[in-house]
Design brief:
- Helix content is about 70%, strand content about 5%.
- The protein is mainly alpha-helical.
- The protein has one domain.
């Protein structure tokens, strides 16, 4: 009898996704009084619920397709998304040099050109590219390690060259959209994959030293040669956000407005918060970038703590599924998604608390947004398939011992 037919989906993972859906809709509903740029902010939570419904359907379809087919088809998705990213860059530079856009359906918000606004829905290619790139890099490293099973300096150089060849083009295109935060997010996920790939530790030591030197140079320029620092950063928008992070109170009427208000909302919530849909202080982008500040303002330390616990349990569950996998390629993918989530969650919560600079990084599965949710739910379908294979392998091993 084939026991693989009895294998069911991961109910713990499905349950966590439903909890995140509830938490997201509640937080977005709570943020409604703080949103003044949208015609009907009270309806946003219903749109988010619809996004979740669509994403569950998409997740089921991808799950039925299966991981092996996904890995084979992923290069086609990579090429299509690169074309979309090129269109965004063309639009951004046409606005800069021609004073008008030339690419249809492209939308620029807060100095960043990231979206296509098609009739009925918005599409952010970089959100999907982050998942596609992890799959592509996992493929590249898996094939490389099959060819070079022993890691030596020469083989590691070849692997790094292959990974850079795949990673650099979309990263440059996303950076040119004035989205440095998302570029960093993708690079971190690739570093996590490389760490799981068996790459010799000396590469990470050298990379850490180079990063530390770079940060020291930037700090020196900021203090002693400010003009060079501004030219090196290359964007007034990014420099202003840096100033707002360093001194939110002193720059409250300019760059520090977002962070200072977030800190006030976060700090004033106390133990249990001000209550559902409280409107204590203005929080720009309350439904997206600052959704955790809304949770802390309305539900206090307890609400924020529960949210973090849910996030940690969810991440731990994904890591548990990945560690049980017998497929190296799946393990590379899990490492990339885990790094992506950890970095994005930590940065989003950290920027609300003033620990790191404010960027356009949202809180996965909780912040409002269709593209981010749909892209992550595609990755969840792959996790469901990995978990199914883990159970089949475990079941076969159990019956062999009998």
């Amino acid at each position: 009898m084939d026991n693989s037919k009895k294998i069911t989906i991961s109910y713990p993972l499905l349950g966590m996704l439903l909890i995140l859906c509830f938490l997201s809709c509640l937080a977005i509903k709570s943020s409604a009084p703080l949103i003044n740029k949208i015609a009907n902010p009270e309806d946003l939570w219903m749109k988010q619920l619809a996004f979740y419904g669509i994403s569950f359907i998409l997740m089921f379809i991808v799950y039925k397709i299966g991981n092996e087919r996904i890995y084979r088809l992923i290069w086609l998705a990579y090429g299509i998304l690169v074309i979309f990213l090129i269109g965004l860059v063309i639009e951004r530079f046409s606005l800069i040099f021609l004073g008008r856009g030339i690419v249809p359906y492209v939308r620029t918000v807060n100095g960043a050109t990231r979206w296509y606004s098609f009739p009925g829905f918005d599409f952010q290619p970089s959100e999907f590219m982050k998942i596609v790139l992890i799959l592509c890099v996992s493929n590249v490293i898996y094939d490389h390690n099959n060819t070079y099973p022993v890691h030596r300096f020469n083989s590691d150089c070849i692997m790094l060259a292959k990974v850079l060849l795949v990673t650099i083009p979309p990263c440059i295109l996303i950076f040119l959209q004035n989205d440095a935060g998302f570029t960093s997010l993708i690079l971190v996920s690739v570093i996590f994959i490389l760490f799981a790939s068996g790459l010799q530790m000396r590469w990470f030591v050298v990379g850490g030293i180079i990063l530390a030197i770079g940060l020291l140079i930037l700090s020196y320029l900021f203090i002693f040669n400010h003009d060079v620092f501004v030219r090196l950063i290359g964007s007034t928008y990014r420099v202003n956000r840096f100033y707002g992070w360093i001194d939110p109170e002193g720059t409250y009427n300019r760059q520090g407005y977002q962070l200072f208000n977030a800190l006030m909302g976060f700090g004033s919530g106390g133990l249990f918060g001000h209550g559902f849909q409280s409107n204590v202080i203005s929080l720009p982008e309350a439904q997206t970038d600052f959704i955790f500040a809304v949770i802390a303002q309305d539900y206090g330390f307890v609400g924020g703590f529960i949210t973090i616990v849910i996030i940690v349990i969810f991440d731990a569950l994904l890591l548990h599924i990945g560690l049980r996998s017998t497929s190296d390629r799946d393990k590379y993918f899990v490492a990339g998604i885990f790094g992506l989530l950890i970095f994005q969650q930590t940065w989003n919560i950290g920027m609300v608390m003033g620990v790191v600079p404010i960027t356009g990084i949202t809180l996965p599965f909780i912040s409002y947004g269709g593209s981010s949710l749909l892209s992550y739910m595609i990755s969840m379908a792959i996790f469901f398939d990995i978990d199914k294979k883990n159970k089949i392998t475990s079941s076969k091993g159990h019956f062999k011992t009998l």
